[in-house]
Predict the structure.
Amino acid sequence: MQFNTLMLALTATPALASFNFNPLEHSAGISPYFSPHNPPIAVSPPQGCNVTRAAFLIRHAAIYANDFDYESYLEPLVKKLRNTTQDWAATQSLRFLANWTAPVDDEHLEKLTRFGMQQAMLLGADIRQRYNHLEIPKKVWSSTADRTVKSAEAFLAGYTHNNTKLVNLTQIEESKKLGADSLTPYKSCKAYSSSYGSKQSSKFIDVYTKPIIARLKAEAPRFNFTQDDITAMFEFCGYETVIRGDSPFCAPTLFNADEWLGFEYANDIMYFHNTGYGRELSPSLGFPWVNATVSALDDESSSQELYVSFTHRELPPTVITALGLYNNSAFTGANDVNQTMPNNTINYNRAWKSSEILPFLTNIAIEKMSCESPGFDEGSYYRVLNNASPQPLVGCRDGPGGSCSQDQFLKFIKTRGESYGDFNKACDGDDLPSSLSIYEA
Ligand SMILES: *[C@@H]1O[C@H](CO)[C@@H](O)[C@H](O)[C@H]1NC(C)=O
Ligand SMILES: *[C@@H]1O[C@H](CO)[C@@H](O)[C@H](O)[C@H]1NC(C)=O
Ligand SMILES: *[C@@H]1O[C@H](CO)[C@@H](O)[C@H](O)[C@H]1NC(C)=O
Ligand SMILES: *[C@@H]1O[C@H](CO)[C@@H](O)[C@H](O)[C@H]1NC(C)=O
Ligand SMILES: *[C@@H]1O[C@H](CO)[C@@H](O)[C@H](O)[C@H]1NC(C)=O
Ligand SMILES: *[C@@H]1O[C@H](CO)[C@@H](O)[C@H](O)[C@H]1NC(C)=O
Ligand SMILES: *[C@@H]1O[C@H](CO)[C@@H](O)[C@H](O)[C@H]1NC(C)=O
Ligand SMILES: *[C@@H]1O[C@H](CO)[C@@H](O)[C@H](O)[C@H]1NC(C)=O
Ligand SMILES: *[C@@H]1O[C@H](CO)[C@@H](O)[C@H](O)[C@H]1NC(C)=O
Ligand SMILES: *[C@@H]1O[C@H](CO)[C@@H](O)[C@H](O)[C@H]1NC(C)=O
């Protein structure tokens, strides 16, 4: 019987046929929203537990392109394509370029796409369904950029079934003066720079683009492909998809899985040093949101049961480090951060994957649960989810389904605060507000 079942399983999923690679799940900051189910723990609360409060930190939904990507990569490639003598119809994998037109110009930069708006609405509807038993919040929060505000509005349309008057949207300035008291604390941190990580990733960009350039040059000798052209082509897969619905740049005949993993890893190195474990500063940028959120969830008298806030791609990864998640060094007994992200070869088994950490609409949730689970003390437990995948905390998972008991969790947060709670010191800064107060009623 068991043997037959096993045989059936083997015939049903032959190893070759089951390999299904999706470049959009390896597009780093340009990945459309997806839930990686990694680790594969159920999103529904563990047996015997109900969620009593929850908080979400959400990156804005898909945009046409940001200024940096457009100016550095996309626009130069488009201009070069308009002025080339290369005959694309004579090539194989690049034939589509004969008739391709750019999906973005400088008019729509930084704006949400229609697809992005729909995804934000769907997330709102999904969260309403998952937390139908929680009170409708009085407020949600967003930083002031057009794309974060529009994401929050679309989310609320989905969450309230278009009854958006039920909830007030509070906008928080993206101001340098607010210190930790905003949804964009990195903007007021002197020690932070948006260019961190580009030097570290440059070495690996040399490594992974070299064979691609050689291959494409053989096909299209008159075009003179550069590293930046290759980056632009990978980026167009994601951007064109969230603008038009699909893109010839995603075709497996253009870039194979290995090449996509190279593009992803170069991005992972960059984000690792920009807002991840590669910089000691990172957890201090994420801690204020964690601390304020835990206070709001812990306090039985706080004004809401559900807290939702919208920000940019920089904040979620710093929150991840403040919580100690996706730490390549966890369980190694060492903390050699740079060794875990070599710049000449891919560490395939790394935990730090930017496509999982910061796709469009990425969302980190902290849930407070009331549990009566067999084998566990009755009481309150906490868990963290990233894009609907529960992420058990390192050293704080004594509860059902990898959750953490209230006492342990509050101790865990306090200990993190002792290491990472001094915003002004970490930022080498002025005497700016050092905690986040927006959730205080
Ligand atoms: C077009 O290409 C030619 C030849 O490579 C170059 O001399 C010229 O500057 C280019 N024009 C533009 C507008 O880029
Ligand atoms: C480009 O479009 C033209 C006109 O529609 C068509 O004749 C041609 O076959 C297309 N070229 C390629 C390479 O698809
Ligand atoms: C939204 O804010 C307005 C103005 O402050 C207030 O009158 C209204 O009651 C608020 N709505 C909710 C749902 O809290
Ligand atoms: C809300 O309105 C939008 C367009 O205005 C519509 O597409 C959507 O179906 C509506 N949603 C609900 C739940 O009624
Ligand atoms: C690449 O890694 C080596 C070995 O760790 C290091 O010495 C070198 O500085 C790194 N290069 C860059 C550009 O970060
Ligand atoms: C090809 O591109 C490289 C790098 O941008 C540049 O240095 C070189 O002059 C270009 N060659 C031709 C023939 O345009
Ligand atoms: C990552 O894990 C290592 C090894 O356990 C640990 O020493 C380090 O403090 C962790 N980093 C953070 C920011 O939690
Ligand atoms: C990791 O590398 C960066 C430069 O790439 C360096 O500033 C930092 O000190 C290194 N960290 C450790 C722990 O060696
Ligand atoms: C969870 O909710 C269900 C349905 O409302 C209720 O029967 C159960 O007692 C609750 N369990 C806990 C631990 O709160
Ligand atoms: C953490 O939250 C507590 C309670 O709200 C607050 O008193 C403290 O200043 C906060 N600390 C930081 C570093 O955010």
